[in-house]
Amino acid sequence: MNQVEALEQAILDRAKEMAAECKLRAEHGRANILREASDRLQLREEKETLLAKAQAERAYRRRVQADELKLQSRMDHLRWNLVQTVLQRIPERIQALRQEEPLYLELMGRLLARGAAMIEHDELIVEVNEEDHRLLQPIWETFSHNATADKQLRLASEPIRIQGGLRLHTPNNRIRLDQSFEGRLERLQRKIYQVIEENLLPQTSSGLRP
């Protein structure tokens, strides 16, 4: 082989080497591009998945909160209806209790004794409704003495409009105490709600209460 042929062969060999290097680099570059594209695609899919999960969780929480508010509203309504039912039945219970006169007088005596003890005054005026006025007036001296012997209790001459029980006040009307059934019920209304809630309304699994 002459020098010209040797040079041509060297050039061809070098060209083949360069072509092989370029091909290898191109393959590496293609692989890198595909890998980077795959990584970006996976990252995008992960972001979209996380975003979808977050949106689903927010939607679920909103739905749960809305359901809890609806449940709370229904249970509040139920509790209110139960309390009203209890309050509406009380006059019937009072009338039934009046039919058992000894028990009714015992109840009135306790209300009178407790009310008189709460007012620091030696003389008190006691007000009752018309029906109780007719019942108590003939026996007032004995009845009031049994309730409290250390105070002068005077039955008001005119009845008042209450369901039952009594009201007390000093002669100058500066101190008053409401021992009527309505007054006591108003003071006990919160306790009535609590009793109904504890005994008639079931607890929910989430711990919600009406």
Descriptive overview:
The protein has 210 residues and is α+β, with helices and mostly antiparallel strands. The protein has a domain at 86-200: 2-Layer Sandwich (hypothetical protein PF0899 fold). The chain contains five helices and four strands; from the N terminus they run ααβααβββα. It has a four-stranded mixed β-sheet with strand order 2-1-3-4. Helix 1 (3-98) packs across helix 5. The radius of gyration is 46 Å and the shape is rod-shaped. It starts with a helix and ends in a 10-residue tail after the last helix. Keywords: Ion transport, Transport.
Judged by helices, strands and strand pairing, the structural class is: alpha+beta
CATH class of one domain: Alpha Beta
- The helix count comes to 5
Radius of gyration: 46 Å
Distance between the amino and carboxyl termini: 106 Å
CATH homologous superfamily assignment of one domain: ATP synthase, E subunit, C-terminal
CATH topology of one domain: hypothetical protein PF0899 fold
Strand portion: 5-15%
The number of distinct β-strands equals: 4
Instruction: Sum up the overall morphology in one term.
Output: rod-shaped
Overall CATH architecture of one domain = 2-Layer Sandwich
| Spans of at least 5 consecutive residues with low confidence | 203-210
- Helix and strand string, N-terminal first? HHEHHEEEH
Average pLDDT, rounded to a whole number, is: 81
Measured as a percent range, the helix fraction is over 70%
| Strand arrangement in the largest pleated sheet | 2-1-3-4
Give a quick account of the main beta sheet: strands, pairing sense, barrel closure: 4 strands, mixed
